[in-house]
Amino acid sequence: MKSIKYILTAAVVAMTMTSCMDGNDKLTNDDWKAPNLTVAPYGNNDLQETNVITIAELKTKFADVVFGTTTGSTYSDANKLIEEDIQIKGRITGNDIGGNIYKQIAIQDETAAIIICINQGGLNGYLALGQEILVNLKGLYIGCYGKQPEIGTVYNVTSIGRMNQEVWNEHFKILGVNNIQEVEPVDFDDIKNDADANCAKLVTIKDIEMADADGSAVWAPTDGSVYLLAGCANRNIKGRSNVVIRTSTYADFAGIAMPSTKGSITGIATRYYNKGTDTWQILCRRTSDLQFSTAN
Q: Which terminus of the chain is more exposed, N or C, with fewer CB under 10 A?
């Protein structure tokens, strides 16, 4: 009897599975929906382009906070809630694709660039380099960290920090498909003298040599041989002042030896102001941003 019982049970299960798989089961057909490939699976697809301003106009509108505040000789970061119903749009020029940019993206339009801080990893999975996005700014905060303009939320009272993933998801929309050709870098030497206008732009710094390159020194060592700030190493360039190549110990190229030859480096030109001194910090996005000659 047990054998007959088991055989009957198996037969019922097999018939049930068959009915589910042959497409004739009404409940299954009602539950399963073909994916909608006409809209992006991330962000807020209900957003419409209204009151779009350029990034340069945004920085002008909030000039009282985007570069911090100075009282006498004392500088401090600043932030402000955006209460106006305004938007910006631009293309992604920097993300975490190579592990060097952490929980941030850089976006740029034809006028300027800005950093957006998001408390989420793996941003490159849906915010690819070259992807155009629309950002609804109402309800977000704008300000700076070391005079680098940023969008996010309040951090440490005055600075800008990372907004949570749920907030971000309600404030952006993916537009079209990504086009990497739309994010060509500019020559760093053409923009370096105007940090207010050009910070966070994608740049290439050309014909350089790294000061500490000896054939074995790596970009971001973890052995204590180089001082690390927030897990990042600042590497100097021969003959250059107030500009460093900033590399996280988590970057894909952190353990690669710095070439002792001449070359070019591409990355996001962020700005850091401290104790009266402006320093450009070039953030490479991936290993291919490091282009050096193989011949001495």
A: N
What value does the mean pLDDT take over residues 282-293?
A: 97
The per-residue pLDDT for 16 is 45
Average pLDDT value for the chain: 90
Strand-pairing partners, residue 107, are: 92, 114
178: left (phi over 0), alpha (psi -120 to 50) or beta: beta
| Model confidence pLDDT, tens digit, residues 251-276 | 999 999 999 999 999 999 999 999 99
Phi, psi of 211 (to 5 degrees): -65, -40
Instruction: Count Cα neighbours of 273 within 13 Å in the Cβ-side half-sphere.
Output: 19
Amino acid at 110: E
Task: Tell me: pLDDT of 35 over 70.
Answer: no
Please state the three-class secondary structure of the chain as a single string: CHHHHHHHHHHHHHHHHHHHHCCCCHHHHHHCCCCCCCCCCCCCCCCCCCCECCHHHHHHHCHHHHCCEEECCEEECCEEECCCCCEEEEEEEECCCCCCCCCEEEEECCCCEEEEEECCCCHHHCCCCCCEEEEECCCCEEEEECCEEEEEEEECCCEEECECHHHHHHHEEEECCCCHHHCCCEEHHHHCCCHHHHCCEEEEEEEECECCCCCCCECCCCCCCCCCECCEEEEEECCCCCEEEEEECCCCCCCCECCCCCEEEEEEEEEEEECCEEEEEEECCCHHHEEECCCC
> How far apart are alpha carbons 97 and 124 in whole angstroms?
5
